[in-house]
C-alpha cells in the first residue's frame, strides 16, 4: 500500500483559545484515522536549515511535526489530509513516499 508523508507547517498568530480548539479537533482526527497511521504524531523540537553556506536555526516555514499514513492512492491521502483541523490555521504538505531498491 502506498505510504504518504504529511508535514505540518506552523501557523502564525493563533489565539490560545483557537489552539485548544484545534488540538481537540486534531486528536479526534487522529482517532478517526488511527488505522492508517504508520507514524502518528511525530512533533519537532529545535529545527535547523543546512546548506552550502553552513547552518542556521529554523526553517523558512517552521514545521510542527509530521506523520506517515498508508492510503490506497493519492486521492485517499488527500481526502484524509483535508479533514485535518490543522489546515484551518496552518499548512500541510503531503508527499507519496518512494521505495528505493535495496542493494
Q: Any idea what the CATH superfamily is called?
A: Dimeric alpha+beta barrel
Strand-residue proportion: 25-35%
State the low-pLDDT regions, or none.
none
Query: CATH class, anyone?
Result: Alpha Beta
- CATH topology name, in short, is Alpha-Beta Plaits
Cα distance spanning the termini: 22 Å
Coarse shape? flat
Tally of DSSP helical segments: 2
Q: Write down how many β-strands occur, each being a DSSP E stretch of 2 or more residues.
A: 6
Could you estimate the helical fraction of the residues in percent?
25-40%
Helix/strand order: EHEEEEHE
**Based on the structure given, which CATH architecture is correct?**
2-Layer Sandwich
Rg of Cα set: 15 Å
Q: What's the rounded overall pLDDT mean?
A: 90
Strand-pairing-aware structural class: alpha+beta
User: Biggest sheet: strands, sense, closure?
Assistant: 4 strands, antiparallel
InterPro entries: Dimeric_a/b-barrel
Protein name: YCII-related domain-containing protein
Describe the overall structure.
This protein has 103 residues and is of the alpha+beta class. It has one domain: Alpha-Beta Plaits (2-Layer Sandwich). 25% of the residues lie in helices and 35% in strands. The protein is built from two helices and six strands. The strands form two sheets. The chain has a four-stranded antiparallel β-sheet, covered by helices on one side. The chain has a two-stranded antiparallel ribbon with strand order 3-4. A hairpin with a 2-residue loop joins β3 and β4. The longest helix has 17 residues, at 16-32. It is flat and about 35 Å long. The relative contact order is 0.33. The model has no long low-confidence stretch (mean pLDDT 90). It comes from Aliiroseovarius halocynthiae. This is YCII-related domain-containing protein.
Amino acid at each position: 500500500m502506498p505510504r504518504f508523508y504529511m508535514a505540518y507547517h506552523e501557523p502564525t498568530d493563533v489565539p490560545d483559545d483557537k489552539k485548544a480548539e484545534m488540538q481537540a479537533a486534531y486528536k479526534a482526527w487522529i482517532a478517526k484515522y488511527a488505522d492508517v497511521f504508520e507514524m502518528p504524531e511525530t512533533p519537532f523540537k529545535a529545527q535547523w536549515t543546512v546548506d552550502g553556506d553552513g547552518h542556521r536555526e529554523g526553517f523558512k516555514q517552521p514545521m510542527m511535526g509530521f506523520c506517515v499514513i498508508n492510503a490506497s492512492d493519492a486521492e485517499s491521502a488527500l481526502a484524509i489530509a483535508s479533514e485535518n483541523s490543522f489546515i484551518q490555521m496552518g499548512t500541510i504538505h503531503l508527499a507519496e513516499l518512494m521505495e528505493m531498491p535495496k542493494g
